[in-house]
Amino acid sequence: MRLAGTRGICVGLESECRAKAPPKGFDMLINFDLDSAALTYAARENLDEMAAALADQRLSAVGFVIEGHTDARGDDWYNEELSRRRAASVRSYLLARGIAPDKIEAVGLGERVPRVSDPYDPVNRRVEMRVSVR
Prior knowledge:
By secondary structure, this protein is an alpha+beta fold. It has a single domain, classed as CATH 3.30.1330.60. 30% of the residues lie in helices and 20% in strands. It is built from three helices and six strands; from the N terminus they run ββαβαβαββ. It is elongated. Mean pLDDT is 84; it is low at 1-6 and 21-27. It is found in: Cell outer membrane. This is OmpA family protein. InterPro entries: Bact_OuterMem_StrucFunc (IPR050330), OMP_bac (IPR006664), OmpA-like (IPR006665), OmpA-like_sf (IPR036737). It comes from Jiella pacifica.
């Protein structure tokens, strides 16, 4: 199985991973609407692919940290809470798809780590996932 995008993972033999990626990629960046922790249809599609990859036994030593983020609208306390809810929303979705709870950790980072320089840009309303080798 090959998942490619701005960040991707390949589950398979080295030769399989070097093969050309299929046209449909997998982006581990999940964006949200303003003041929302609800998953969009596109987010659920990406998370379904992520769940399929995480279920592969060859990734048993790999986990993920789900990091929730916000733009700069709202006060610090509110943004921290919203970012936690966003990360928890993604984690809950993956748990419902059969991923073991110990494989995924959710944290909220509020507005502290913007993706782009404009702190109010909607791109900053997101969840990112990073690999955590256990």
